Amino acid sequence: MNFLLVGRPNVGKSSIFNLLVKDNLNIIHSRSGTTRDWHVSKIKNNININLYDTPGLIFDNSKIIKKNFEILLKKIETLIYVIDYKVLNYDNDKELINLFRKYNKKFLLIVNKDDNFEKNKDVSYLGIDNIFYLSCTHRSGLEELINYFKMFEDSKNNFEENSDFSIGIYGKTNVGKSTLLNKLVGFNRSTVSNIPKTTTDVVKSFYIYKSKKYSIQDTAGLIKKNKIDKNSLDFYATKKTISIIKNIDINLFIIDVEQGFDTQSKKIFNILFSKSNLIVIIVNKIDILKNNQKKIIIDLKKDINTQFSKSKNIHIFPISALKNKDVSKLKNFINALSKDVNISLSTSKINEWIKKVTSDYPHSRVNGKVVKFKYGTQVSKNPLTIKIFTNFSKKIKDSYKKYLLNNFCQNFNIKSKNINFLFSKTSNPFK
Question: Which of 35, 347, 366, 379 places its Cα 20 to 30 Å from the Cα of 99?
């Protein structure tokens, strides 16, 4: 069963959503209109019910103002309309409810913010029989609402949250993250605007490509920490964006071709790279380049490599999300790269590589003694971590670590994957 929370802005839909689902997925803030895209998750302890949260809806000339609302409604069996207990007049809500009736859905009414749990509002004229009073602050009425959902525990549900591969989209504000998500999934799932910070929460969707199901998440644009008020929506949006990075299979970092790899982009990329498994740099908006497109992109790649040495082992992919240029190639590329999520390298191959790479270019002596790299083995897949045993584990130079990393990626044909080398003084167990 699929339920959809609807209602006017700031009536507490996201608070209700977070109380009912398994995680606090949506940002809650005092600013009206915090939720700007719809979200979905399973209700706690009930895998058969999907609960969707929407932005507050407005209407004009007898039409609901919300792009792609019809697309979402095709999935829904029941509308959960939410009103604020403290509001004195519900005439606007009655008009909205009447507009919803044309979709021929079942209705449930939640009277939220009844903090004293008086349950004494006369809302019968709204024409909804199933009425629940609730206070998210005090959790009054929550048990009664959950018991209602238990009626649907045996219902069949065709929606499946699981996916074969997960994608995250990151970058500064207004670089085209939402546009790219929409092009990948094939419809306008995420709200797009020229106004910065349109996406304030994580927007999740799915698409199928070559018989594989991909989940994809559009995130809020990251901004500098020293410019964020800790009580602001930007603070919570940035915190939510950073929290999901490590749980994603591949993270796409988008930069605007005109803005380039500027200081803010570099700071964001450093955060992203340190927490990612697989990462790809997307150079977006190449359609605005009228002349010398190839040269500008080549120069930008050189600039990225100069500012961030590890980017030499990262794919840099130019596209125009708005014009849909090379987005299909990106899909195919992601599909190919998905095979590298769980790379397993045999110990014998790693040791063959260590023997050759350290013989070709030995580490400089430490205190007059030869640095010996005795043994290596893979200890983790995500991120790919190689543990190397040596007699001078704390004396390995950074320049030599970069040499090993670049040679490792080249030798094993690995690109865009975060790789860690751990150096240990532990004796070779096979010696």
Answer: 35
SS3 at position 353:
helix
Residue 229 has a pLDDT of: 43
Place of tokens 């591969």: 165
Task: Please identify which residue in the block is written with the tokens 């930069």.
Answer: 255
Task: Round to whole Å and give the CA distance between 131 and 103.
Answer: 20
What is the separation of C-alpha 53 from the centre of its chain, rounded to a whole number of angstroms? 17
Cis peptide before 318 (omega within 30 of 0): no
Q: How far apart are CA 395 and CA 399, in angstroms?
A: 12
Is residue 327 predicted with pLDDT exceeding 60? yes
Return the closest-CA partner of residue 7 out of 78, 67, 94. Answer: 94
Q: What percent of the chain has pLDDT over 70?
A: 79
CA distances from 115 to 34, 110, 135, 142, 216 (A): 22, 13, 5, 12, 37
Task: Report strand pairing: 165-171 vs 250-256.
Answer: parallel
pLDDT averaged over every residue in the chain: 82
d(CA 301, CA 266): 13
Domains of the chain plus CATH, in order, are 2-152 (3.40.50.300), 165-340 (3.40.50.300), 347-424 (3.30.300.20)
Rg of the chain (C-alpha set): 26
* 333-350 as b/e: b if 16+ CB within 10 A: ebeebbebbeeebeeeeb
Decide: 317 and 209 in contact? Cβ < 8 Å.
Answer: no
Q: Is the pLDDT of residue 200 over 70?
A: no
CA distance 351 to 134: 63
Encode 205-254 in three state secondary structure: EEEEECCEEEEEEECCCCCCHHHCCCCCHHHHHHHHHHHHHHHCCEEEEE
The structure tokens 């990329």 sit at: 269
Report the predicted TM-score, pTM, of the whole model to 2 decimal places: 0.63
What whole-number percentage of the chain has pLDDT above 90? 37
